[in-house]
Amino acid sequence: MSRLKKESVEEVTKKVLDNGGILAKLYFDMQSEKPDDLQPLMAEMINNNILKAPGVVYCYGSIDEPIKVDELTYSTSAALTILFKDFGALLNISFNYAPAGVEILKPEKEYILKTSEMQSIVLDVAQISVNYSQYILSKVLSKEDFEKIKESLERREKLGKELLEKAKKNEQHGEAKP
């Protein structure tokens, strides 16, 4: 039975990699004053966030026992092997969960991105930046000023999505770019 599961994982991995997927090992760390909280918090982040993130096909790994790093602080780390549907999914996890390290396991040579994929990735990065900016601004601006900026950012996001859809349609119809 375990042999069947292993072959199944290998088949899924090959199929995803053949279609633009990426297999990577990501390293995460977490610190707290309470050592007993660290492993459950890390497991929660993995199970409730990383495993459920768009573009994550599967994830497995291990969480280390907490170690004392100074008088008040304990630390734990996790090494996760993750199969991503595409580069954008890897980028999103990296931006949203800030791994301490990333090691690309496969593909081993080059990775080719279509123009539409690059555009989508750049827009995703821009959206993550906007979300972060909104969070910061919500903490430092008055409610009225924040709402004005939020409306402006939402209009900008809508325009970006429309431009991306237009570019995808043009690429599908084989239209030349200027």
Brief write-up:
With 178 residues, the protein is of the alpha+beta class.
Could you explain how this protein is built, in words?
The structure is a single chain. By secondary structure, this protein is an alpha+beta fold. It folds into two domains: 2-106, 2-Layer Sandwich (Alpha-Beta Plaits); 115-172. It is built from five helices and five strands; from the N terminus they run αβαβββαβαα. The protein has helices at 2-18, 35-50, 87-97, 115-140, 143-172, and strands spanning 22-32, 56-63, 67-68, 74-84, 101-106. Strands 1, 2, 3, 4 and 5 form a five-stranded antiparallel β-sheet that branches. β3 (67-68) and β4 (74-84) form a beta hairpin. α3 (87-97) packs parallel to α4 (115-140) and α4 runs antiparallel to α5. The protein is flat, with a radius of gyration of 20 Å. The N and C termini lie far apart (56 Å). The model has no long low-confidence stretch (mean pLDDT 84).
Low-confidence stretches: none
- What's the tally of helices? 5
Biggest beta sheet attributes: 5 strands, antiparallel
Helical amount:
55-70%
In terms of DSSP E residues, the strand content is 15-25%
What value does the Rg take, in angstroms?
A: 20 Å
Total domain modules: 2
User: What is the N-to-C succession of helices and strands?
Assistant: HEHEEEHEHH
